[in-house]
Amino acid sequence: MLKTDILIIGAGPGGCAAALKLSQLGIPSVMVDKATFPRDKICGDAISGKAVTILRRIDPGIVERFEAATTEQSSMWGIRFGAPNGKRIDVPFRPNYDPINDHKQGFVSKRMDFDNRLVEEVKLRSNIELHQGITIEKYEQTPDGYLVSSSDGSFQMQAKLLIVANGAHSAFSRHHVGLEKDEKHHAGAVRAYYRNVAGLHPDGFIELHFLKEINPGYLWIFSLPNGHANVGLGMRSDFVSQRRYNLTKGMLNIINQHPLFVERFKNAELLGKITGYGLPLGSKKRQLSGDNFMLVGDAGHLIDPLSGEGIGNAIYSGFIAAEQAQQCLLQHDFSAEKMKAYDIRVARVLGKEMEMSYRLQRLLTRSWLVNFTTNQIARNPNLIYIIAEMYTDLEVRKKALNPLFWLRAFLRK
Ligand SMILES: Cc1cc2nc3c(=O)[nH]c(=O)nc-3n(C[C@H](O)[C@H](O)[C@H](O)COP(=O)(O)OP(=O)(O)OC[C@H]3O[C@@H](n4cnc5c(N)ncnc54)[C@H](O)[C@@H]3O)c2cc1C
Known about the structure:
This protein is 38% helix and 25% strand. By secondary structure, the protein is an alpha/beta fold. It folds into three domains: 2-72 and 105-182 and 282-360, FAD/NAD(P)-binding domain, CATH 3.50.50.60; 187-280, D-Amino Acid Oxidase, subunit A, domain 2 (D-Amino Acid Oxidase, Chain A, domain 2), CATH 3.30.9.10; 380-411, no CATH class. Strands 1, 2, 8, 9, 10, 11, 17 and 18 form an eight-stranded mixed β-sheet that branches. Strands 6-5-13-14-15-12-16 form a seven-stranded mixed β-sheet, with helices on both faces. The longest helix is centred in the last third of the chain and has 28 residues, at 336-363. The radius of gyration is 21 Å and the shape is globular. The N and C termini lie far apart (69 Å). Flavin-adenine dinucleotide (FAD) binds at residues 9-15, 32-35, 41-46, 48, 135-136, 165-167, 189, 191, 232, 277, 279, 297-299, 303, 308-312, 314.
């Protein structure tokens, strides 16, 4: 029977980050994915600055090679917010940014391309053994860890440690760890690719529209290379259920009928189908590890509850899981007790952020408040710069929880 110290299940951003970090530490691993890459993943395709920063930390070459593939990604320099009253504001990620000379703050890249790039990076490293086209279905706990098997039994491997990164529908998370879907901490979203959407921002600002028709959800439009755009609509699952809301119909209604979008989509062409998927949000603290395993990315319900951003958190948690695995190997200890350090570290680096995002997510359900704030921001450039800093500086985000901080900002025009 095949044996390994570390088996990573899922070669999405979370699994790849774990494998690449382990490789950098000189630790071999085996990674298995049910898909054969390149494969699609339903997503908004926005790769945040956080994702880029952690990949750079693993190996700056990964980001350099990705940036060199200019036809696969467009840079994003900020966010265009649309308030329920129709007002729009543009918030750059950095005040006075220079798109030519500044370090890129993030990208939009089809997951077909981005995930494949990560897998190509994995293939460059001789100490990662990658198996594609294998669906892991059976997990059996043994005295030495886990024995995992594929659906048809043709693949079997004994591992001391599992890094489970198999996404939002992870059966392991659900059945072995008990991470059930909680609709208040889960979102549904649909997305589609379009060609020729008019009125996109020249510097690729990603667009988030909080329209009153879909409150508390939002519509996004993210600009891609070659005149393509990723367009989607997301909403917390409890609201979707309560209203029996059809996300696909909702999105098409807006695109085809809403006065703000009709003209922009007049000549747009839908490429392929509109498809949906779930987002397990990190607004509820979950168990992330136990004897001989750690959960990474969506398998650990680590998506930001405000923005729906999960790629950065998947990469970050994969990075931390790799460092934790190194400690476990050094001390020959894969016990739940030892593994708790992983949960603690993930909570330390992502917990505060999730908490703040959750508070903001709940505030955004109040249209009047969003309208009021947008009007104030539109009149006060100082506020735009503060919000820009909130994206790049966690300290500013923490200060923003204090009402006095905002009072001072409003007064300082
Ligand atoms: C509509 C939508 C829009 C989104 N927009 C954004 C966005 O713009 N930006 C952002 O940052 N995040 C976004 N997200 C979230 C983001 O897609 C996820 O957070 C991210 O993909 C998580 O990465 P991951 O590696 O944990 O899981 P995944 O990317 O889901 O990778 C899991 C991998 O595991 C494999 N796998 C699954 N089951 C098995 C099995 N049994 N055996 C073997 N392999 C298996 C899969 O084939 C897959 O390759 C969006 C999500 C949705 C649904």
